Amino acid sequence: MNQDRTWLVSVLFLDIFKFSTIPVDQQLKVKRHFQGLVSIQIASLDDGDTIRLDTGDGMAICYLGDPERLYPIARNLRDAFISQADSPDCSYKVRLGLNLGPVKIVEDLNHKRNSLGSGITDAERVMSFAAENQLLVSKSYFEMVNKLSQDYSRELQHLRLRANKHHQQHDIYELAVELVRVNNPNGAFTSSPAAAPSGSLAEPKFDPEAIKKISHEYAMYISRAEGERILQQTMQQASTLKQLCELLLKEIKSADDRYSFDPYLKSYGYSGYQ
């Protein structure tokens, strides 16, 4: 293969969420299960057009064939990971990023094909914005597949520009999910109706499903007991989910953890700050 050639390929980058925090005796089990699910889904791809790269806590799949072939595979994988997320035997979550970009095909030390270039690094950056079991798609990939069929514009929702920690802007799209998203013009979380007058049957102050999802994610950054205390306290102080999210974010001490929790909130519709 000509190593001087630049290939325009589709790249699916997958990352096992917080893999390093999984107990060591469970990491091998998780990795094998993860690889098994991926292998099943990519079995239909031509081996000659497929390069699989093990990243340690995930995998990158570079496909040299028709770029649109990777989208249904990514979609099916997202669904498969959601289905097994609460399995008592092997529970884990995955982030997915899909990109179309240039790569060079090279030979590694084991005389196997490897690939490098912005096509892969941009796929990884797109993936880094994803929440658990979320599929994000780059603008370059979306624009390509959307020219083939407008069905993609019904499934993929624009999330606008997102900046990584190096202040590089990425225009990304999200595979629509059925979690705590509401249809308002700003794509923001909304709370339930205000509490009813005393003596009547009161509506909950916040959407219970939204609180459940936020609480689960918050426990990734603050101990569950401390997180529950902070959540209950901030729910008393805030009148909207927007205010609640702002207060919760301020309580996270680590800048890196704040950076991770921020896109999680935005990925489910909250866009009240930049």
- CATH architectural label of the largest domain: 2-Layer Sandwich
- Uncertain runs are 178-203
**What percent of the residues sit in helical stretches (DSSP H or I)?**
25-40%
- The tally of domains stands at 2
| Morphology call | globular
Q: Classify the oligomer.
A: single chain
Structural class: alpha+beta
Structure explained in plain terms:
This protein is an alpha+beta fold. The chain folds into two domains: 6-175, 2-Layer Sandwich (Alpha-Beta Plaits); 182-274, no CATH class. The chain is built from nine helices and eight strands. It has helices at 24-42, 70-84, 118-128, 139-148, 151-155, 208-218, 224-237, 241-250, 255-267, and strands at residues 6-16, 50-54, 58-63, 94-107, 113-116, 134-138, 156-163, 169-175. Strands 1, 2, 3, 4, 5, 6, 7 and 8 form an eight-stranded mixed beta sheet that branches. β4 (94-107) and β5 (113-116) form a beta hairpin. The chain is globular and about 65 Å long. The termini are far apart. Mean pLDDT is 79; it is low at 178-203.
Features:
Alpha-Beta Plaits; 22% strand; 9 helices; 274 residues; eight-stranded mixed β-sheet
Architecture blueprint of SSEs:
Elements: E1 6-16, H1 24-42, E2 50-54, E3 58-63, H2 70-84, E4 94-107, E5 113-116, H3 118-128, E6 134-138, H4 139-148, H5 151-155, E7 156-163, E8 169-175, H6 208-218, H7 224-237, H8 241-250, H9 255-267
Parallel strand pairs: 4-6
Antiparallel strand pairs: 1-3, 1-4, 2-3, 4-5, 6-8, 7-8
Helix pairs in contact: 1-2
